[in-house]
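User: Sequence in, structure out. Go.
Assistant: Echoing your sequence, followed by the structure tokens.
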Amino acid sequence: MSKQRPNYLAGLGSVVWLLVVGAPLYVLVSASVQSRADYGASGPLSLPRHFTLRNYIDDFSTGFGRYFLNTVIVTVCVVAIVLVVVPPLSYSIVRSRGRVTTAVFRLFLLGLAIPAQAVIVPMFYVISKAGLYDNLIGVILPTAAFSLPMCALVLTGVMRDITPDLYEAMAIDGASSWRVFGQLVLPLSRGGLATIAVFSALQAWNGFLFPLVLTQSDSTKVITLGLYNFRTQYGINVPGLLAAVVLSMVPVLLVYLFARRTLVQGLMGVGGK
């Protein structure tokens, strides 16, 4: 039996990739715990001389906490809208074979081909006429709307994987459509529900275009917009800026660590098996 030879080239590539990914993260975290003077004297690649959390404290005391709270509000509301609208929509698409349902589903799929930049001008007009300009609701609604097509596509695929025999068994028991939906479809679609929740949460958390165009005052800014304006507000305080970046990354990393397997399974359409 021949021994498998080690693949040194693959190992070298892995090390290089680790450096490519790890070096920016190291600079990010290392600089965020240095004072402005230490960072200017030692540079981005050096170890912190004096560990400090002052940059994080200053960020929250100068308005970043408000940006963080606004982002949490937008994210929670977008996820709630998606979880309320998409499951019954996907269920009706799967169980109904009518032309209207098919047309609605195709309309949602068409939304995947329309970038937000293409409709930002009419979106601005509609939001302004509705009196929602410079309001978090004006950010929540379009963000949720642009999350719906992908979420509907994912959850529809998950629900189609549910065995038809289960529907027939509940129909024999005299279960209504809403009972089938609540007691059969939703429990078997938990993987898909988690997937669309994570997807819509990331869309809302990382959103930039809608907050940029549809908000103006400092009280309605979200994290991405706060980071965009950070240098203008605080000069060249690089450690403070990188501390804000670290704070904005923490929720995303937590979601990735705890939901990555569910997200992959939902996108593969295996949640109902």
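User: And one key feature?
Assistant: The radius of gyration is 24 Å.
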